[in-house]
Amino acid sequence: MLPISAFVLVSLLLMSALVLDVGRMSLERRRDQTAVDTAIIAGAMNRSSQNDLTTTIVDSFNKNLNTTFTVADLDTCGTDTVPPDWTPYPGANCLSRDPSWTQLRLRVPTQSFETSFATLAGVTEMEHTAVAQIHDRQRGVVLPFALSASAGDYECLKVGAGNVPDPDCSGSTSGNFGVATFGLWGNEQMGTATDCTGTGDQFMINVAQGLDHDLSRWGELPHNTVDVIDMDSCGSTPRPNSMTTTTGNTPQKLGLALFGGDTFPDGGPSRLQRTGGMPWFSTTWVAGATLDDTPLWEYIDPTLSASDDAPASCFEDQFGPLSAVEPEVVRNHLALSPVADQKIKLMERCFAHFQGQSWDDEGALSPADVPDGCMGACTTPIFSLDSEQEEQDIIDLQASARFGYVPQINSALPSGNGLVRIAKFRAVYLQRVYGGNCSSGGCPLTFDPGFGYTFTGTTDKASALTAFIFPAGILPNGLADDNALELYGSNRFVELTR
């Protein structure tokens, strides 16, 4: 019995030793996981440069793990296997990124501790680490168009070839049709593969889905006044601040991207066919497809009242029957225009008044209609409807495929192809589509949301596209500000994916 008892006792001691040290190992790994999750989120929100990113990560590690890591310690993961097509950061191979720079992966540098009782089993040291991966995503997509420095509140994003029945959309400016050239950098979350050849397929995908990578403003971080051109960079340098415009009219490519295309890389249809953002969104059958038919005025906060710092011209009732529009002189003036044009003019009037400006319908109304409701520029957001009160601070407008951002350059559109610099990103709402084979007699398809318009024919062409350009402050949470794409919590979100 003595030998058996001794054997059992030793076995129990060894098992107890392993349980104690393995338990400590589990505790250390839990601490590692919490620390790496915290560090990668903090790093993603402060990554204007690699130095800022790595410094933030190291500081977070040291705070949460009670370590004394240095940036050099982030370069000790050379044997780590990263996902295909991912690239370790130079000098910090514990950190890697996908081709689009929107996904980051971070490993805690391997740590160890000396065992206590496990030494009885010959285990003197145990190593531990943890990995986290995030997707840093924008809620508001960037669309591949270019607004000039002088763009107003309602503009043509894509100009036609000369037959579009709209003076703002008919005929290019010295060969420039408003299209900007962006590559596909490769984004697993959006289903895109790297392609910077400059083909029209890139344009269609970027219209339908939005860009698959981040941009920045010229003169701001991370590149300041150094030109980083999107197509030239194509993944080698993150967040380009410049782009090129392109010549040539592309009605079929725009039409396929907006309403006539098949499934795109992210699994979704053409942009205006993406109609499921909110249960109350309305649709209509146009050009052989079911398209978003929700007008911009449906997103107006229904609780706005005279007690708010908002113009009366932006209240819901001003976008109902024409008989409700005040004052009478404006009502009589609008009566001369088609109903769809009336709504566009009323929205321009709302935008002007919100900015503390009078509205004269581009000189057609005299005297001009003065603002009513604010002393100078208004401050209460107008389009702040939030019907579902989600945990994340998302308003209904952000769920619409018609909402997005367009780069505004710091100059006029160039003649033909040319380098342009991004001054800011303007929040836009896609409004009118001119489609079909346009001629001197007009376009067979003129589609504005909100009128239940049905085009009986089918077409895959769109010659021109207009949009409302939101002024700063008219959207809540800074969504129309110059830096809107950089706002975490309202327009950017960090999602842990591993």
Keywords:
5-stranded antiparallel β-sheet, 16 strands, alpha+beta, 7 helices, 498 residues, 7-stranded antiparallel β-sheet, 21% helix, elongated, single chain
Task: Quickly describe the structure.
This protein has helices at residues 2-44, 50-65, 200-209, 230-233, 251-260, 328-334, 339-354; strands at residues 87-89, 92-97, 103-107, 111-114, 125-128, 131-138, 154-158, 176-181, 242-247, 283-286, 289-292, 403-409, 418-435, 445-447, 462-469, 492-496.
How would you characterize this protein structure?
The chain has helices spanning about 1-45, 50-65, 200-210, 230-235, 250-260, 330-335, 340-355, and strands at about 85-90, 90-95, 105, 110-115, 125-130, 130-140, 155-160, 175-180, 240-245, 285, 290, 405-410, 420-435, 445, 460-470, 490-495. By secondary structure, the chain is α+β, with helices and mostly antiparallel strands. The chain has three domains: about 1-140, no CATH class; about 155-300 and about 380-485, no CATH class; about 305-370, no CATH class. The strands form four sheets. Strands 7, 8, 9, 12, 13, 14 and 15 form a seven-stranded antiparallel sheet that branches. Strands 1-2-3-6-16 form a five-stranded antiparallel sheet, with helices on one face. Helix 1 runs antiparallel to helix 2 and helix 3 packs parallel to helix 5 (about 250-260). The protein is elongated. The two termini are about 50 Å apart.
Instruction: Let me know the average pLDDT.
Output: 91
Which H/E pattern describes the elements? HHEEEEEEEEHHEHEEHHEEEEE
Tally of distinct domains: 3
Number of helices: 7
User: What is the strand content?
Assistant: 15-25%
Overall geometry comes to elongated
- What oligomeric state best describes the polypeptide chains here? single chain
Report how far apart the termini are.
Answer: 52 Å
- Ranges where pLDDT stays below 50 over 5 or more residues in a row are none
Care to count the β-strands? 16
Radius of gyration: 28 Å
Helix content: 10-25%
